[in-house]
Amino acid sequence: MSRQPRTQNVTTDAGEARITWVPATTATTATTATTAPGPRLVLAVSHGAGGGIEARDLKALAAALPAHGVTVALVEQPWRVAGKKVAPAPKTLDTGWRGLWPALAAPGLPVVAGGRSAGARVACRTAAELGAAAVLALSFPLHPPGKPEKSRAEELLGTGVPTLVVQGGNDPFGRPEEFPSGSYELAEVPYGDHGFAVPKKSGLSEAQAMDVLTGAVTGWLTSLR
Known about the structure:
By secondary structure, this protein is of the alpha/beta class. The protein has 6 helices and 10 strands. Helix 1 packs across helix 6 and helix 3 packs across helix 4. The longest helix has 18 residues. The relative contact order is 0.14.
């Protein structure tokens, strides 16, 4: 049995944010008349600095994970809810995320902090202090395009919790082979750019690319049990 997504506005010190809850589903097996276990964790994922929760990777996770006992919380930062075009400074993004955390933790389940790009950096920076069970970093911006010397690896290496990076093979913000060794795990979406778009000549469709992404995330979340 599926349940419809619902939205929740949350007031933070950075302004009003919004969570779109996509609940974990339960299914009854006709042959055994048994019901699958209920939700086991919340995956909270936020958008990047240039887009919203309509990003292909966030939509794919929201579609795939509820069937695996994962409630997905799609988080819109206050600047996005307010209709602004440009994201604020990292400190303000962190403030918004901290203000959202009590609502994310309210279901009483372990919360995996996540996001794409700038949202991934927020999750990494705040995971330990907020008590996140783990971190999911989608398209982690290891460095600005063309400026590998300006590394943000310290944020990724300092999460203090189990961490999975999912990175496009052709991401100009950091290709998989550029990432330093560390205690985190890394999964690659072949040919993917920063938004996990894949060129037609790659022979990989968008659906296949998203299957790679959701498969990696599902397997990793399962391993956290």
